[in-house]
Amino acid sequence: MTPDYEKIIAEVFTQVKAEENLGKIPDYIPEIADISTEKFGVNFTGLNGQNFGFGDFEEKFSIQSISKVFVLAYVYERLGEKLWSRVDVEPSGNPFNSLVQLEADKGIPRNPFINAGALVICDILLERCTDPKEEILAFIRNLAGDENITFNEKVAKSEMQNSFRNSAICNFMKSFGNITSSPADVIEIYCYLCAIEMSCKQLSKSLLFLANEGKIPGSGAQILPFTKVKRINAILLTCGFYDESGEFSFRVGLPGKSGVGGGIIAIYPSHYCITVWSPKLNPKGNSYRGMKFLEEFTTKTGESIF
């Protein structure tokens, strides 16, 4: 029997909101540091047409590393399996901005979701696109069916002024020949992608194609073939939460991706996409309330991919 998702989400949302809100907002991106710590939103979008939210689910926030999912899908469709010669698909076991493994791995990032991997993906965008920022924005708007998705210029500029570590990672990979464009141009694209603003409602709709064998529900437009969607979902499961990916798989049991803006998306293939936003992060850089909510949600529904 299909769970009553709306009832379960309402119960879990109320429960988590009433409990202590631990963690902290990252202070290395000044424009994000000013957000209210009590913001909390959830949106559920199912393949059966269900779409509902609670709390601040229609308020836009900086999606940060969730944008890496969109960019990976865009590049993977255009470059195909050649992509994996420049970025691996293994869990890193290290923080998202670590340089440690790049020396031993000769400039090949462990996966597309750590910062090093996303910088390589941005480099590929620069190689293959005339206007990378606008092309990715158009791609996301098409998935969401919403032309009102934009970059937050203040967040992008704030990130560019504080991107010393990412610049180090990018230049280090350049020394191995795995970055072909100017590192400054790569960093600019990366910062703008992180500064895309979306709501929980927009995110859960726009990533529903990953639950629908690569097709946009309704129109049936094929964004990616199923074989590639399967692989993206696998990387989401094993690498979507950096060095907390195993913990998320253990506690939630769904492919997902977090961002330091406090957002988390989770995919239940053939069923739904659910998005949670709460800005306070745990020590691993993932939303404290988001992680807690999704664990309780899959516990109560009894659903996971396992």
TrEMBL record:
Alphabetically ordered keywords of this record: Acetylation, Hydrolase
Pfam name, any one: Glutaminase
Species assigned in the record: Kaistella treverensis
Catalytic activity: L-glutamine + H2O = L-glutamate + NH4(+)
Assembly notes: Homotetramer.
Top-level enzyme category: hydrolase
Keyword DNA repair among record annotations: no
Record family assignment: Belongs to the glutaminase family.
This enzyme's EC code(s): 3.5.1.2
InterPro entries assigned: Beta-lactam/transpept-like, Glutaminase
Protein name: Glutaminase
One annotated GO biological process: L-glutamine catabolic process
